[in-house]
Known about the structure:
Shape: globular
CATH superfamily of the largest domain: Diaminopimelate Epimerase, Chain A, domain 1
CATH architecture of the largest domain: Roll
Amino acid sequence: MQINFSKMSGAGNDFIVIDNMRKHITLTDHQIFSLCKRRTGIGADGLILIEPSETVDFSMRYYNADGKPGSMCGNGGRCAAYFAWLAGIIGDNGSFSANDNRYEAWITDAEKVKLKMTAPENFSSGFATHGYNCHFVSTGSPHTIIYTDRLDNIDVEHDGSLIRNSSNLFPEGTNVNFLQVTGPDSLDIRTFERGVEAETLACGTGAVAAALMSRKLEKVTSNHVRVTVKSGDILDVVFTDEMDEIYLSGPAKVVYAGVVSVC
Length: 263
């Protein structure tokens, strides 16, 4: 089977994005894993199928790099919206569904997308594991938050994996975000992503979790938080005092397009 795809980057998160509006493509977990595998496949943090919807402009079906269906991916959602805009599925703004939630997106500039996120759930603060003081919030995906003054010294791969797999605390796993507060409205972040099982260059729902938790704990003073991710890109998180309206903005682009043979 020959499949047309686009390789996309959302602030460093990379995705394989496929137009499946005609519903003619079906992929197994193993095929998705093989496509996402670096060096022997296309290589990506995840795979996105753009599919039809009866209620919104399109549906985003997201899979983690391990081939399993994933929870919400903020940067993936922004890439999906940009792909849909390029394909003429949406105009400068549009809506899509993902994991039974509705999202609205705006193409705000060349290769820049703003996405309205869902309200956070399950705030929890001040619990310890593996020598770290942790906080937790779900922003469409589960996120553990850890603050540090020496972000560059953290072994994200090792420590992130230990916390991600703390099944007594997180039966379904968690993403793990290490943060350094760099100003009254700015953060640096490094993220170990569940499903990728490695540190990634960015995480959209992680950036949102970091901004909301930091505001809730009064570590930042603004409702517009600029989050610098490992790629060096900046994700802007803007929210209301009640945190019931949240917007994630940042870069999204097509890196290249191609055709891949899937067996």
